[in-house]
Known about the structure:
This is Phosphate ABC transporter ATP-binding protein (PhoT family). By secondary structure, this protein is α/β, with parallel strands linked by helices.
Amino acid sequence: MAKRIDVRGVNAYYGDVVAVRDITMRIEPCSVTALIGPSGCGKSTFLRTLNRMHEVVPGAWVEGTVLLDDVDLYAPEVDPVEVRRQVGMVFQRPNPFPTMSIYDNVLAGFRLNNRRLRKSEADEIVERSLRQVHLWDEVERRLTKSGSSLSGGQQQRLCIARAIAVEPEVLLMDEPCSALDPISTLAIEDLISQLKERYTIVIVTHNMQQAERVSDTTAFFNVAGQGEPGHLVEIDETKKIFSNPANPSTEAYINGRFG
Ligand SMILES: Nc1ncnc2c1ncn2[C@@H]1O[C@H](COP(=O)(O)OP(=O)(O)OP(=O)(O)O)[C@@H](O)[C@H]1O
């Protein structure tokens, strides 16, 4: 089941440097939220605070609260590995494990979580996940081939299949189309629109048309200057942000006047 994310007063640090400050927002289940803003304003850093990936960087830490429905992801008893199962992630560069087959790539999340599967169960998960990302028909006959034998767009769909195979509640996507050609980009965008029926999706994108096409809600981040932390300027319905934003800097960014 898709879950709501409630972010309250989140600061993210690299050592003693604050990368993003005082972020508060609510992300609704079964919706797509786009994070936009100029380079260095902390979109990716903030995204990674939503599944405890930020703290994987040595010296990096988080203050504040991130609730997944009612569970605080940063509570001491919460296991970050379990958080990352519930909140899956897709990265900018398609990154299938190159030495693994297509089949094993889809199941990689289960191996990481040390879950053993019966062969029939594994077959079912592989087929279901690949069908959900519309890759099944293209790879059905070569499941034992390496994941890196696929095209860029197919590899990214394989990575999305790998992320959803473990049935997360939330899917985080960090510029998932930036390494893809326009046709693969449209295929991923269509897929995002379908996946939101089941998942809460948060996507970082530099592409304004993409934010407008795929998201229900848009959050605009900005940074006051070199060495300053990124902050959230405004978050609203995508239609409103793109037609009548509350803050002049949002409009300037969207219209390409900076960033
Ligand atoms: N591993 C790191 N160690 C130290 N500082 C970092 C690290 N990663 C990012 N930063 C800094 O944190 C700030 C936010 O970076 P982040 O990558 O989150 O921004 P972004 O908005 O996603 O940028 P872009 O759009 O260019 O990807 C920047 O000042 C960046 O230099």
